[in-house]
Specification:
Helices cover about 0% and strands about 45% of the residues. The protein is built from no helices and 5 strands. A 5-stranded antiparallel sheet has the order 4-3-2-1-5, with no helix packed on it.
Length: about 60
């Protein structure tokens, strides 16, 4: 199994979708990261296509 650069519980932001708000990583397996965003809900992100920005909770 591939190791991910993200871990459940971490906070992130999607660089191309700032309107989604702050997100919290729910699961991370290899390049597949499920994030629960404030304004978009749960989104599956392919980190081969998008590098999520690490963030701090507000």
């Amino acid at each position: 199994m591939e190791r991910s650069d993200y871990e459940p519980g971490q906070y992130v932001r999607h660089p191309q979708r700032p309107d989604w708000g702050l997100g919290q990583v729910q699961s991370a397996v290899g390049h597949r990261v499920t994030v629960n965003f404030e304004h978009a809900g749960k989104v599956l992100v392919d980190t081969r296509l998008v590098t999520l920005d690490h963030a701090q909770p507000e």
